[in-house]
Amino acid sequence: MKTLISIVVVLGLLYALVKYGIRRTTILDYERGLRYTNGRFNQLLEPGLYWHSPLSTVIHKVDIRPRFISITGQEILSSDGVTLKISLAARYEIADLLAATHQSQSFEQALYLELQLALREIVSAADIDTVLQSRGEFSRKLLELTDAKAQALGLKLISAQIKDITFPGKLKEVFAQVVTARKEGLAILEKARGETAALRHLANAAKLIEANPQLLPLRLVQSLGQSSGNSLVFGMPPAAPIAPTPSKSSAHE
């Protein structure tokens, strides 16, 4: 009986040791681990299988694949007093895992705030026409402004681009009218260019015919030959008067 009790106690201790004394943690290829022993950082862990005691050791796993941030509906006042709603998309990755986890409580929220402030700084210093015409340049400036701050957070900012720009309702109508007027102006300009070219061609032809009058009938014949259903009537010279001839009876007289 005592032997049986001893076996049960040993099995219970082994169970408790396995359940509470030893843990297994697997770190995948796209992850890295931070090992803390007694509350202090101990080691940066690469992908693999690790055994540790949860009583004294904690392993914190972090996904290091590239991440995306989307900032939507930011209402920003341009330098000429127009309220714009701007959306932003950014792509980043963790460059320094220890700095990213130790420098801020949430590196994602910290980067979000830095991008938001940089976007407001850039847009508020420009007028609405510049914002519309220089979206690519704004994206480049945005990346420059936030790159150093992202590095301080242990991150690498891969890209940051303005996605959408939205205007107030009335301003949308104004810009639509501007675009329509611009298209109509281009159409009128193109028509004027065509008419000018046609007039220039006619002027050159008139000069050529003036210098060579014999070309006009030839050109007329050529034009008529290229089209069907036309009749060409050539003018005949006036008939000469017919002299009277004496009759036979008159001759005998």
Automatic annotation (TrEMBL):
Membrane topology recorded in Swiss-Prot or TrEMBL: Single-pass membrane protein
One CC-aspect GO term: plasma membrane
Residues annotated as domain Band: 22-179
Signal peptide as annotated in the record: none
Pfam family, one: Band_7
Entry-linked InterPro entries: Band-7_stomatin-like (IPR043202), Band_7 (IPR001107), Band_7/SPFH_dom_sf (IPR036013), Stomatin_HflK_fam (IPR001972)
Classification via Gene3D superfamilies: 6.10.250.2090, Band 7 domain
Localization, UniProt: Membrane
Principal localisation: membrane
Top-level taxon of the source organism: Bacteria
Family: Belongs to the band 7/mec-2 family.
Listed PANTHER family: BAND 7 PROTEIN-RELATED, BLL5629 PROTEIN
Protein name (database record): SPFH domain / Band 7 family
Taxonomic source organism: Candidatus Competibacter denitrificans Run_A_D11
